[in-house]
Amino acid sequence: MTHPRSVCVYCGSRAGAKPSYATAAKATGAMLAARGWQLVYGAGDVGLMGEVARAAQDAGGRTFGVIPEHLFPREVGKRDLTTFVVTETMHERKKVMFMNADAVVVLPGGAGSLDELFEVLTWRQIGLHEKPIFLLNTDGYWNPLAALIDQIVGEGFADASLRDMLVMLDDVDALETALVSAFA
């Protein structure tokens, strides 16, 4: 028997400037729960993090949150998750989240989301894993990142295969289809 799938979602601890970001976060959490996939995320109850988690919970989904002690007050650690882990460091947080996921989804977010994305992307680039990495490109949020990846490849700092390691999707329906395919 295969284990139930888990999807790590990296996203902002802030709501962002557009209401569409929260709408997409809620839709992502609800979709994961509807599919029976566990949400793995940073255990915060603020910003997009809180939106995705509450939506997953409201839809009856399993939630696995990981938060370092020092961010507990800032990100308002969400204690009512199915699994709630408190780590000593950010490095531990990222490792526990990644190790408990079968795929990575990145919603709009800031420097922390970029840090998490580039860590798992680098690990994939150097052959440490083959987990799929999806970017939810709500309202074109990740278009500048796609251009940067193209520049990195074009300037000879990465092989063209780097582009294929990131799958950019415009909406949650496309994300769901891509995850179903990845898990098949």
From TrEMBL:
| Protein name from the UniProt record | Cytokinin riboside 5'-monophosphate phosphoribohydrolase
The reactions it catalyses are: AMP + H2O = D-ribose 5-phosphate + adenine
Q: Which UniProt keywords apply?
A: Cytokinin biosynthesis, Hydrolase
List the source organism: Thioclava marina
For this protein's source organism, the top of the classification is:
Bacteria, Pseudomonadati, Pseudomonadota, Alphaproteobacteria, Rhodobacterales
InterPro entries recorded = LOG, LOG_fam
Q: Which family does it belong to?
A: Belongs to the LOG family.
Q: Is-annotated flag, keyword Hydrolase?
A: yes
Q: What is its EC number?
A: 3.2.2.n1
Tell me the superkingdom of the source.
Bacteria
**KW Hydrolase (keyword) present:** yes
Pfam families given in the database record:
Lysine_decarbox
Look at the named UniProt entry and state the broad enzyme category this protein falls under. hydrolase
